[in-house]
Design brief:
With 213 residues, the protein is α+β, with helices and mostly antiparallel strands. It is built from three helices and six strands, in the order ααββββαββ. It has a five-stranded mixed beta barrel. A hairpin with a 6-residue loop joins β1 and β2.
Length: 213
């Protein structure tokens, strides 16, 4: 009986050892699975979409070039024509100019009158106007006057320059006021164009003829 009991104990110990080995083997297999799957997922750094092979902190690549045959962006359509950098020409006056078209710095001179009782001033009989459209038989535009005659005082000591037909020159020549008066008296209503400058007293102190071909 003792022999049987010892044998049974031996069998029980062997079975217990086999069972323990199986349990340990199973636990170790579970740990390996966790390490290979769970542990790997936690410790890995996910690569963002489109960033395969890039290391953290690497500078982004340059922007892709426009594909061949692609259309232009909406902000700069390919069909748009470039703006004309040259401004359009200002139309000339083909009739009596309006108040807005009148040149404020130039006048047409018709006559010169002496002022009674005043020796240092004379009156210029003039009209305002604007440059018109050139004619077929002229080399330059005419000065088109508008309105009625005006009278403007000019100092007899004013600085005056003249060109043809007052003097034989296309460049301004300095002349005296009396020389101007004599020519205008001999050629009334000529309508020669002058550019003027007014002094502190309101009278014209500078009168320069404008050359017209």
């Amino acid at each position: 009986m003792k022999v049987k009991v010892n044998r049974l104990r031996s069998v029980a110990v062997v079975l217990a050892g086999v069972a323990l080995t199986a349990v340990l083997t199973g636990c170790q297999g579970g740990d390996d699975d966790t390490g290979s799957n769970g542990g790997g997922a936690v410790g890995s750094s996910a690569t963002p979409s489109g960033g395969a092979g890039k290391t953290p902190g690497a500078s982004p690549s340059a922007a892709p070039s426009t594909p061949s045959g692609s259309t232009a962006s909406p902000s700069s359509p390919a069909s748009a024509e470039p703006a004309d950098a040259t401004p359009s020409a200002v139309p000339c006056a083909d009739g009596p100019p309006t108040v807005e078209e009148v040149d404020p710095d130039e006048i047409a001179l018709f006559r010169i009158e002496e002022i009674d009782g005043i020796t240092d001033k004379v009156n210029l009989v003039l009209q305002h106007g604007a440059w018109g459209c050139p004619g077929k038989d002229t080399d330059g535009p005419p000065f088109v006057v508008t309105g009625e005659d005006s009278r403007w005082a000019m100092d007899q000591g004013a600085y005056v320059t003249a060109v043809t037909p007052i003097v034989e020159s296309t460049e301004n020549q300095h002349i005296g006021v009396q020389e101007l008066i004599d020519w205008v008296d001999a050629h009334p209503d000529s309508g020669l164009v002058f550019r003027y400058t007014v002094g502190a007293d309101g009278a014209i102190h500078r009168l320069e003829q404008v050359f017209t071909p």
